[in-house]
Backbone:
C-alpha cells in the first residue's frame, strides 16, 4: 500500500507507517512541513487539491461549541464568582455526589490537601490536578452529572472558587474570574512530566 | 458452552459435559423411532444425538441471530453513567470482536444521536473553519483498517502486590480490549480541506455525550493514522462505540479515540482537560506524574486455558491467546508452560497487521502436574512485554493505567485453572 513519506510523521516510538500495511522505513517530517506540503496519507492519486464538501463555519457556530478552557485562560468567559457564592452552588448541585466536604463521595473525591513526595493518595483537586482552569473546563461541560450545562458562568466560577478554597488553595475571600483563575498555581503542577516511553529494547519505563 | 457473563462463571462446564451427552441421547432415541425405515440398531453411546435432516429448516430472515445456546455477554462493571463493560475474550475466536460485544467505556452514558443531525466542526488554527454533516464526511475517500482498541485501564486488577487475585477471568482481567475493522476518512484528509496553519501542533477532540468528553492529541499522530470512523465490522458504528462518528487513533489508549465526535479544534498546545490530567495520568512513585502516556505498549494474554476452565484430563491441549502492540506489529510471542523457566515460540496466525491483535497458539502435552502457563510478546520495535516486577520497579505502586505486564495462569493437577501471577511474586 502506498505510504507517502510526508504523511508518515514520526511520533516518538511510532516505528511503522501507521496508515498502511507496508514496512516503509521511517521518514520524519515536522508538523509544519506536513502542513505546508498539504499532504494527506491515504488520498487517491487523482484527488483534487480540495473537495469543498461541507460548509464554512460561522463565527456564531464556532462560539456555540468552542467552550474549552486552557491553562493560560484562553476560552474563559466573562463573569465572576466568590467562595461564598460557590458554597451555595455546591450545596445544591454537588453535595449529593461529592459529599458535604468533598471527600465523602460516592463519586470522585474532590478535596485532599496532602503534600506528597513519591506518589499521591487519590487524585483529588488539591493534591493532584495540575491546572485550576481544568476545573472550569470540566464543570462547564460535564457537571452536574444529571443536569450538565445548567450552571451559569458566574455559578461555575463560584463553585470553582469554592472547590479551590476547600482544598486550601485560595483564601475564603477569593473571587474567580477570567484573570484570577489562570493565575492560581496548583500544588501538583510541576510534578507532571511528558511520557518518556519509546518502545524498543531499552529499559522498561 | 455459553454462559451468563453478567455473573462470572463459577460452574465447571467441561466437567458437566458427560452428563449432557447422556441427556441428549434420550432425545435421539425418540428421533430414531420416527424415522424407523432408516434406523439401525445403535448402542446409546453411538447414536447421533439429534437428526436435523428430517425436519424442514427455518426460512430466510432479514437479520440473523446467534444460535440459542451461544449467548456471549459483556460483563458490566456498574449500571452508571460513567462505567464500562468488558468483552468476553475467552469465548471469542480469531481476532475480530463482534460489534455487539465490543467493550464499552462511557463517561456520560450513550447519547441518542440521529445521523442526519450530527455535525463535525473543525476550527482553530485553520484557514477555513468548516462544518461537516455526516453526508459530507461519508462522501470523502475512505479507508478500512483492522485495529485493536484497548482502554489503558485494562489489567488494573492484577497490579497490586497486596491484592493479587486468583479467581479472575480473562474477561474481568483484560476485557477492555476489542478488535474491529474500522472504516472512515483519514483525519488528514479533513485537515487538508480546512488548511492547517503553521505552528499548529495539537488538536482537541470533543464528543457530544453528556460529559462532552475531550482529549488533546498530538498533530503528528493525527496526520499519521487517525480516522474519522463511522464503520465497524462492515456496518455503521454501534451507538456504544460512538455512532455516528468517532475519532479512532490506532494504538493509542482507548479514551483518546473520542466517541460521538462533534468538534476538532487545531491548537498549538494541549488543553489539559480533566481526562488528561486528573485521569489517564501515571504517578510514577518518584514524585513525578507521567502525562500523555498515549501509546499502548505491547501485551499478550492467554485466553485458554484460563480461569474458570477445568482441563478434564492430561494430554494434548492447545494454549490460545491474543497479542498486540500499539507501536506496530507483533514480532513474536513466546509461551512458557513451566512458570517462565523455559520459553518456546508460539505459532502466530497471520495476517500480522500493525496495531492489531494477533492470535497465537501453542500445542503442549500436559503431564498432569501443577504448573504455570505464561505468554510474552515482543513487538517489531524490540520491546518485550515486561514482568510485573519490572513495572513495579519502573513505576512504583501507584499507577492505574498501562499495566501490560506478563500474566500467568496456574494449572493445578486437578485440572483447575486460576490466575497464577501471585505464585511468582
Residues:
Amino acid at each position: 500500500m502506498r505510504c507517502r513519506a510526508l504523511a508518515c510523521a514520526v511520533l516518538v516510538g511510532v516505528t511503522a507507517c501507521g496508515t498502511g500495511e507496508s514496512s516503509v522505513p521511517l521518514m520524519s517530517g515536522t508538523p509544519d512541513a506536513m502542513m505546508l506540503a498539504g499532504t494527506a496519507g491515504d488520498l487517491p492519486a487523482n484527488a483534487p487539491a480540495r473537495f469543498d464538501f461541507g460548509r464554512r463555519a460561522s463565527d456564531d457556530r464556532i462560539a456555540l461549541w468552542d467552550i474549552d478552557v486552557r491553562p493560560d485562560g484562553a476560552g474563559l468567559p466573562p463573569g465572576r464568582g466568590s467562595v461564598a457564592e460557590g458554597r451555595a452552588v455546591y450545596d445544591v448541585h454537588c453535595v449529593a455526589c461529592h459529599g458535604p466536604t468533598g471527600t465523602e463521595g460516592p463519586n470522585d473525591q474532590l478535596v485532599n490537601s496532602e503534600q506528597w513526595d513519591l506518589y499521591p493518595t487519590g487524585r483529588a483537586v488539591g493534591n493532584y490536578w495540575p491546572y485550576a482552569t481544568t476545573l472550569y473546563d470540566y464543570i462547564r461541560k460535564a457537571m452536574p452529572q444529571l443536569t450538565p450545562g445548567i450552571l451559569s458562568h458566574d455559578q461555575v466560577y463560584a463553585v470553582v472558587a469554592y472547590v479551590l478554597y476547600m482544598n486550601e488553595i485560595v483564601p475564603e475571600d477569593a473571587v474567580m474570574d477570567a484573570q484570577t483563575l489562570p493565575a492560581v498555581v496548583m500544588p501538583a503542577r510541576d510534578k507532571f512530566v511528558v511520557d518518556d516511553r519509546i518502545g524498543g529494547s531499552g529499559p522498561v519505563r | 458452552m455459553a454462559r451468563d457473563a453478567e455473573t462470572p462463571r463459577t460452574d465447571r462446564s467441561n466437567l458437566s459435559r458427560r452428563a449432557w451427552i447422556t441427556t441428549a441421547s434420550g432425545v435421539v432415541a425418540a428421533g430414531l423411532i420416527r424415522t424407523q425405515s432408516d434406523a439401525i440398531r445403535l448402542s446409546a453411546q453411538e447414536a447421533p444425538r439429534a437428526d436435523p435432516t428430517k425436519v424442514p429448516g427455518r426460512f430466510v430472515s432479514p437479520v440473523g441471530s446467534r444460535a440459542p445456546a451461544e449467548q456471549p455477554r459483556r460483563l458490566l462493571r456498574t449500571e452508571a453513567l460513567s462505567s464500562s463493560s468488558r468483552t468476553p475474550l475467552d469465548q471469542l475466536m480469531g481476532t475480530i470482536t463482534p460489534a455487539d460485544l465490543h467493550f464499552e467505556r462511557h463517561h456520560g452514558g450513550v447519547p441518542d444521536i440521529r445521523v442526519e443531525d450530527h455535525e463535525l466542526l473543525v476550527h482553530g488554527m485553520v484557514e477555513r473553519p468548516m462544518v461537516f454533516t455526516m453526508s459530507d464526511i461519508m462522501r470523502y475517500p475512505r479507508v478500512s483498517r483492522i485495529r485493536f482498541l484497548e482502554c489503558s485501564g485494562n489489567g488494573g486488577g492484577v497490579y497490586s502486590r497486596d491484592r493479587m487475585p486468583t479467581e479472575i477471568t480473562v474477561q474481568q482481567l483484560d476485557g477492555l480490549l476489542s478488535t474491529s475493522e474500522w472504516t472512515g476518512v483519514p483525519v488528514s484528509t479533513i485537515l487538508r480541506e480546512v488548511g492547517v496553519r503553521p505552528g499548529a501542533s495539537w488538536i482537541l477532540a470533543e464528543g457530544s455525550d453528556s460529559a462532552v468528553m475531550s482529549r488533546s492529541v498530538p498533530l503528528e499522530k493525527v496526520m499519521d493514522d487517525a480516522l474519522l470512523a463511522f464503520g465497524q465490522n462492515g456496518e455503521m458504528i454501534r451507538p456504544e462505540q460512538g455512532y455516528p462518528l468517532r475519532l479512532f487513533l490506532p494504538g493509542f489508549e482507548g479514551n483518546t479515540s473520542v466517541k460521538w465526535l462533534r468538534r476538532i479544534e487545531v491548537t498549538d498546545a494541549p488543553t489539559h482537560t480533566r481526562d488528561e490530567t486528573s485521569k489517564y495520568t501515571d504517578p510514577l512513585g518518584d514524585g513525578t506524574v507521567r502525562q500523555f502516556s498515549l501509546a499502548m505498549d505491547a501485551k499478550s494474554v492467554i485466553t485458554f486455558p484460563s480461569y474458570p476452565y477445568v482441563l478434564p484430563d492430561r494430554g494434548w491441549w492447545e494454549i490460545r491467546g491474543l497479542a498486540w502492540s500499539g507501536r506496530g506489529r507483533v514480532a513474536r510471542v513466546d509461551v512458557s508452560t513451566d512458570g517462565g523457566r523455559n520459553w518456546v515460540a508460539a505459532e502466530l496466525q497471520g495476517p500480522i497487521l500493525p496495531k492489531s491483535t494477533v492470535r497465537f497458539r501453542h500445542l503442549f502435552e500436559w503431564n498432569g502436574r501443577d504448573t504455570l502457563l505464561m505468554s510474552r510478546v515482543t513487538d517489531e520495535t524490540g520491546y518485550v512485554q515486561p514482568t510485573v516486577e519490572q513495572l513495579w520497579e519502573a513505576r512504583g505502586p501507584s499507577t492505574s493505567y498501562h499495566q501490560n505486564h506478563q500474566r500467568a495462569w496456574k494449572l493445578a493437577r486437578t485440572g483447575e485453572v486460576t490466575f497464577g501471577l501471585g505464585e511468582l511474586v
Remarks:
- Residues 1-54 of chain A form one domain.
